[in-house]
Specification:
With 358 residues, the chain is an alpha/beta fold. Helix content is 34%, strand content 23%. The strands form 3 sheets. The chain has a 9-stranded mixed sheet with strand order 16-15-14-13-7-12-11-8-17. The protein is globular, with a radius of gyration of 21 Å. Bound molecules: NADP nicotinamide-adenine-dinucleotide phosphate. NADP nicotinamide-adenine-dinucleotide phosphate binds next to loops.
Amino acid sequence: MKMYDPIRIGMIGAGHIAGSHAACWQNEAVITAVCSRQRSKAEQLARKFDIPVVCDDIPSLLNRDDVDAVGITTPPHLHHPIAMQAMQAGKHVFCEKPLALTGEEARQMVELAEKTGVKTGVQSGMRHFKSLRHLQQIIKQGALGQIFSFHGAWSFDWAKDPKFPLTWRFKRDEAGTGVLGDLGVYLIDVARWLLCEINSVWGDMNICIAQRPPLVEYHHFGELRRQHQAGMLKTSHDRVDVENEDVCHLLLRFENGVSGTIRSSRLHVEHEIKIEGERASYLWHLKPDQLLCRKAGETDYSSVTIPDTYSEESMVTHFLYNIRQNKNEPPTFFDGLKAQLLMDAVVQSDRDRCWVDV
Ligand SMILES: NC(=O)c1ccc[n+]([C@@H]2O[C@H](COP(=O)([O-])OP(=O)(O)OC[C@H]3O[C@@H](n4cnc5c(N)ncnc54)[C@H](OP(=O)(O)O)[C@@H]3O)[C@@H](O)[C@H]2O)c1
């Protein structure tokens, strides 16, 4: 087996989330090259993170012998074509969520990974949180008794101002679904991970703000939000149609018979997970400090102390471990595929107004 020490990363995409990726890669691997659509943006990231090489395009990055694995942080419509090229070039691939635009694309990605033998990883958002890893252990040990229900909410209000411009996130051909693929996908992943596979879904997707001003000046997401909040963003009086949902509600039926709900919105803030069981119920909040609480019987919820036995993990830890140890531990592209198939079912359910089996 090829030995990797350290694993050398090529980053594709240098936008808003790329900085968080670079910080993780820097801690646990080494970044050898970066490319983006505009070279100047890749150069900015390279300066900040001491990345030695800026490539002009994706093929140049994929041709490099000093790149063992690539990290993709482009908009979703580019995940499939870039990942396919990277795997064909023999590179391991870590990809942002949602893995692809459709289940069919995601299936092709899984199949090519199997054929080429490269390792894959998908950004799953919450699996590395210590409090949720602890909750997963508690559930595995059967401490809840029979589980009655799952509820997850994951929402941020970045789009609540109707004057926020229409970026790629609001377009079907670039983002696919709206808040479902952007935020709901985290809860789909965490629900599967904490409980088990989801068998069927009923989905309702709603566009609440039907039109927005077109984008006058392109910036990365974080910079757009900063300039918008500061009133510095150039705007237009025109309006264009929003193409995907601001809010989604999902009713779930898990393979073990448990029922559940998921809600995501880009118009309000809400982050919680609640699992109700026969012997105890658990409630998790992102703030303050990823608080995990437990309740048994009629008592109120009280906070749970997380043992200090959990090691630090980042979004890329499992991916790098899989490369080093020649393993395929989740989350891999397979988990991205499972989430994508569920999201396809949500779209169908919303269109046909019925339950859809996954
Ligand atoms: N995990 C999280 O918490 C989280 C948060 C936000 C986003 N995301 C995910 O991360 C991905 C990117 O989101 P973002 O907010 O970082 O977007 P963003 O700020 O708009 O950045 C997109 C990046 O993709 C690059 N790009 C666009 N078209 C390209 C092309 N044809 N070839 C090469 N690069 C291209 C852009 O190039 P330039 O640099 O040249 O402009 C930019 O670097 C999405 O899948 C999103 O869902 C995850």
